[in-house]
Amino acid sequence: MKTNYNNFLVFVFSLIPGAGYMYLGLMQKGLEAMLLFWASVTIFTWIGLPQFGAMISIPLWFYFFFDTYAVRSRLVQGEEVEDKGMLNIIARLGIHKYYYIGIGLMVIGVLALLVNLSHDFSGWFKYGYYFKRYLPSVLLIAGGIFLLSRTRSISSVAEEINSEDQLGEPDGEYHET
Fold first, then answer.
1. In the chain, which ranges are E strands?
2. From 19, 80, 107, 152, which residue has the greatest number of CB atoms within 10 Å?
3. Residue 81: enclosing H or E segment and its boundaries?
4. Are 143 and 102 within 8 A, CB to CB?
């Protein structure tokens, strides 16, 4: 990997979330950073909660900006830097990640639904009003419920496997002696 990076270009590219990582050769990390940043802005604006988008995207921007410099200094020192993004960190959490993501989706969906319900009720009978206003909130809540149910089903299967292993039962095969 290249170790001689132009400081001005690192600065310019690090102003755009993810572009600094890409300049340093970390394409997966850069793409994930871009997607996380722009998705937070877009999704929260779409569901009517731009304040939450700002609360998430501004700290993300600062993190990506300064982390680009930290990664650059590690690369200049000759350290090996893995091209893994934030989504790989979430994946290491195990089956409990679905539970927390599901709860987060449900909370965001309920907040968006409450904000959208509090708007002017005079436009309720306009064509497409329900679809544009409430569908994103309902989808977030449904996604949260799906992830919570998936967590419970995965954990129940894991408990059954652990209980069978502790009882010393054979794992589905019959061996005749």
1. none
2. 19
3. none
4. yes
- Domain boundaries in the chain? 1-91, 93-170+173-177
In contact, 83 and 26? CB cutoff 8 Å: yes
User: What is the model's pLDDT at position 62?
Assistant: 93
Residues 12, 50, 40, 132, CA torsion sign: negative
* CA–CA distance, 72 with 19 (Å, rounded to integer): 13
Q: How many CA atoms within 13 Å lie on the side-chain side of 98?
A: 14
How many Å separate Cα 54 from the centre of its chain? 16
What confidence tens digit (pLDDT) does each residue in 62-92 have? Answer: 999 999 999 898 888 888 888 776 666 556 5
Under 8 Å between Cβ of 36 and 30: no
* Separation of alpha carbons 76 and 24, rounded Å: 10
Instruction: Centre a 10 Å sphere on the Cβ of residue 108 and count the other Cβ atoms it contains.
Output: 21
pTM of structure: 0.58
Burial class (CB in 10 A: 0-12, 13-18, 19+), 26: buried
Instruction: Give me the half-sphere count of Cα atoms (radius 13 Å) on the Cβ side of residue 57.
Output: 20
Residues of the chain with pLDDT > 90: what percent? 7
Q: In whole angstroms, how far apart are CA 77 and each of 55, 72, 130?
A: 34, 9, 56
